[in-house]
Amino acid sequence: MIPARYGRIGLLSFLPICLLLITYYGMLRKKDYTAYQYDYDHPKDGSIQRENAAFVLLVRNEDLNDLRETMQMLEDRFNKKYHYPYVFLNNEPFDDKFREYTTGLSSGKTYYGQLTPEMWTYPDWIDQEKARLSREKMNAEGVIYGGLESYRHMCRFQSGFFFRHPLMKQFDYYWRVEPHVKFNCDIDYDPFRVMKEKDLKYGFAISLTEYGNTVPTLWDTVKEFIQQYPQHIIPANSSDSLMRWITNDDGASYNLCHFWSNFEIASLSWLRSQAYLDYFNHLDKAGGFFYERWGDAPVHSIAAALMLKKSEVHFFYDMGYYHNPFKHCPTEPEWLSVEKCSCDPTDSIDKNSWSCTSQFLQLVGKTGKDFVITQRSK
Ligand SMILES: Nc1nc2c(ncn2[C@@H]2O[C@H](COP(=O)(O)OP(=O)(O)O)[C@@H](O)[C@H]2O)c(=O)[nH]1
Ligand SMILES: [Mg+2]
């Protein structure tokens, strides 16, 4: 019988050989995989080049658990390589548990801010009784979120204030994130860098048609704005104009198409521009955030279609993204979803009739594939 001592020594000397074999096998296997060739690669010296950008989240303390899953995914799929900061905003103070858990998950700096009073209250020109009656009516009619007062403050805040919060002033770009959303594909390039290098102002993943009963007078209000501020609008007959994405009858009516704003990667200087501020103030004065239920998605999207050139709006085609109940999953070229994603490409909303993405692609004369950032090497 071999004494146990010799057995241990034998095993120990065998260990390095095993490790070598495993490493060699790993290298052989890796060669089977096609390497990706990145347009937007990390600097070779290992340093991280970050843009002046942050994630921005409007959240409540009670959203914490849904948010943790989302943050974990975002970190694993993207941010652990880049360490972008997070700005958490709330109409109430964040509690210690929220701060501790979110800071724990983040590989970047975390900032916590409360909204200033004018960001979450009624402006003095709003008739609050009229607003209350309208909520009651919309609730009785079954309009989605029709009876919710806080939802209206949320939509107004996202339309006109988040980019002016003191914590956001230091940044040039934002990536809006919500609790409960999922990121289903590896994001192995820096979207903020793409925004900057390609001079993009707005990026989306999903587009949809809005519920008409939430925005009955929005388009008339927008038409007044266009008349009063023609200097802010790209003429509809210009080849750069995105106007035909939001109207099917040369501006007579709104076709309800909008970018789904729960995912946005966009320019803060655009939102802080006089053009956007004049637009928001005009809408705000009209009162539709409270007398109707104007969402920040159509508000942002109409602004983008009026003020931005086709070339300034980017479809983040290569991101797998889910917000209940819709997902966007890259479908072509096939390798994106096969090798980088966990979503089902056949389940992507893009070709569904509720989506406005094919109309967008048609108008800008591109396909999803044209928006892919990283390329498979030949
Ligand atoms: N702090 C705070 N955040 C809110 C409130 N209502 C909604 N939100 C946030 O605003 C975003 C949009 O709200 P959500 O309920 O997801 O609306 P939906 O996406 O339109 O269904 C999410 O990030 C929510 O966490 C609120 O009353 N207070
Ligand atoms: Mg949401």
From TrEMBL:
Protein name as annotated: Alpha-1,2-mannosyltransferase
Output one GO BP term. Answer: protein N-linked glycosylation
**Alphabetic keyword roster:** Membrane, Transferase, Transmembrane, Transmembrane helix
Which protein family is named in the record?
Belongs to the glycosyltransferase 15 family.
Give the organism the record lists: Rhizopus oryzae
Would you indicate the residue range of the signal peptide?
A: none
Quote the InterPro entries the UniProt record gives: Glyco_trans_15, Nucleotide-diphossugar_trans
The catalytic site is made up of: E264
Membrane-spanning parts: 6-27
